[in-house]
Amino acid sequence: MKNIKLAAQTGSGRTVVRVGNVKVGAGFSIIAGPCSVESEEQTLETAHAVKAAGADMLRGGAFKPRTSPYAFQGLGLKGLKILEKAREETGLPIVTEVIDTRDVSWVCEYADVLQIGARNMQNFSLLREVGKANKPVLLKRGMHSTLEEWMNCAEYILNDGNPDVILCERGIRTFENYTRNTLDLSAVPAARELTHLPIIVDPSHGTGRVPLIAPMSLAAAACGADGLMIEVHRNPSEALSDKEQALTPAQFAKLAKQSRAVHKFVGGLE
Ligand code: PEP
Ligand code: MN
């Protein structure tokens, strides 16, 4: 792989990204929460539920990169304030997406981890901006991206001075359309070979189908992932985005327990 200097494996050990008390890359870190922040009640109720089920961080989109301009675009600043309240109440650090270079500095006032979504993986000005931020970055794999392209995007962030990058495999587009994407779990051991950065898996966007999310979470834990990102809604049928892939809090609780057990069983593949 060419031009990968900062993210390349050096044999000097793996990077652990610290987010408050959470250490991504040491143990198994689970990020859970709604696709979108829809209201204060929905977010707080889901936040308490995922906390009780053992989540380490809360996810929720305030800025949504939607395929259609007519779909729900997120609550913006109001959504970030709701997430702030959820952190106050639960103690869970907040993972939230930033989609515009102009928003990075002020979103940092609310977010504990800045998410770069699949659609923005190669938005180089956005990568440079989060590279200058003093918050960890969760970098999703682009839906049409090779591992080399993905690693180069991590390289942009590292090269601009931010060492705290978490990779997230979320599925790629293939000819298969039964699933929303094709979850490339081989990317997990491959990334562990290529880079010292931690890698987590998002089987929610990776499959887009509720019955597939728990099995693929266990498979992710078995193949060496450092954690998971899972979409959870207090009432999936009412979700304003991605309702087909939202787990109930009870489904999430079972998945969290089982995937931690699998991670323990394989010993983090160390
Ligand atoms: C998300 O996690 O909210 C999201 C939009 O995912 P992706 O960028 O992987 O499609
Ligand atoms: Mn989603």
Please tell me about this protein's structure.
By secondary structure, the protein is of the alpha/beta class. The protein has a single domain (29-269), classed as Aldolase class I (TIM Barrel), CATH 3.20.20.70. The chain has helices spanning 40-52, 77-90, 104-107, 124-131, 147-159, 187-194, 203-207, 210-222, 249-266; strands at 17-19, 22-24, 29-33, 57-59, 94-97, 113-116, 137-140, 165-169, 199-201, 227-231. An eight-stranded parallel sheet has the order 9-8-7-6-5-4-3-10. Helix 1 (40-52) packs parallel to helix 2 (77-90) and helix 4 packs across helix 5 (147-159). The mean pLDDT is 97. Phosphoenolpyruvate binds at residues 35, 61, 65, 97, 117-119, 140, 170, 205.
Could you write a compact summary of the structure shown?
This protein is an alpha/beta fold and 270 residues long.
Query: How many structural domains does the protein architecture include?
Result: 1
- As laid out across the biggest beta sheet, the strand order is 9-8-7-6-5-4-3-10
List of distinct ligands in this structure: phosphoenolpyruvate, manganese (II) ion
Please state the oligomeric state of the protein chains shown: single chain
Mean pLDDT: 97
What's the SSE pattern?
EEEHEHEHEHEHEHEHHEH
Measured as a percent range, the helix fraction is 25-40%
What is the CATH third-level topology name? TIM Barrel
Low-confidence stretches: none
Structural class: alpha/beta
Which geometry do the CA atoms define? globular
Task: Please tell me the CATH architecture by its name.
Answer: Alpha-Beta Barrel
Number of helices: 9
Largest sheet geometry: 8 strands, parallel
Tell me the Rg in angstroms: 17 Å
Query: Termini, distance in Å?
Result: 23 Å
Strand content: 5-15%
Total beta strands = 10
Task: Indicate the CATH class.
Answer: Alpha Beta
